[in-house]
Amino acid sequence: MIHDDWVVVKCTLPEDQLENLTAVFTKLRCEGIEEHSDHFKVYFDVRQWNAQKEQNIVHTLQRMVPDFRHSMMEIFTIPHENWNEAWKDHFKPFRITDHIVIYPDWERAQSDDHTTAITIAPKMAFGTGHHETTRLILKFLADLLSPDMRVLDAGTGSGILAIYAAKRGCRQITAFDNDAVAMENAAENVQLNHCADSIRLQTGTLQDIVPPADGYDIITANINRNILMQLAPDWKTYARHGTRLILSGILKDDVRLVMDHYAAQGWQLTERRSENDWAALALQF
To answer: What's the mean pLDDT when you consider all of the chain?
Structure first.
């Protein structure tokens, strides 16, 4: 599957302005955000772009950015094959924690007994590790994973969470996404990280996954709030007593709504973490 061109919204604003705008662009279904010191670029699938979305962005910037002028925003398109070139300008190896380092596929990954190195080919799938929602789940997993755990990664995107689980010794990992392009990227990243023996990739939805007889030990879901709310009754089919469910993609303002909804399904909150406008929840069944 090949995407058409990408619509790029370039905003000539300081990077500290982006922190308040990321949630807005995510709700508008942006596919990626590229940060620089004096501007940022937001990428949209051309098939999801329309005049109303452009107007929403303009109104948001006018409301949230002091002294915003239309000249601070530029909109243009780039061919799909130029996406990697855009990433190379700013994607350098970086640390999620003291023990997790993310490398782009054009850099040579370096790991040791104390560091887990993950190589990502940054295509249009979500999950390079730059976004707060991905970092929050990785930090939870760093504390919760142990060898031979069974892991389900819902909405896997780039496959980064499943790959980290494999590198931590988990051997029964299922990762799925309903986006065929994301699954192509996940498959590429699984091969780059030599994890194919540990991870089963499947294109589809949660209902397409056949659960193991005694459930998964850990389930991760970095998905938007509305989908998390819809899936709340379904996770129990894939859980057992003691299963940890880690949810991300939740704005801080929506945490109470999500927590109450999951509590009604029998899930108990064990920990909440946040970064900027985003939150992640660890729940136990």
So the answer is: 88
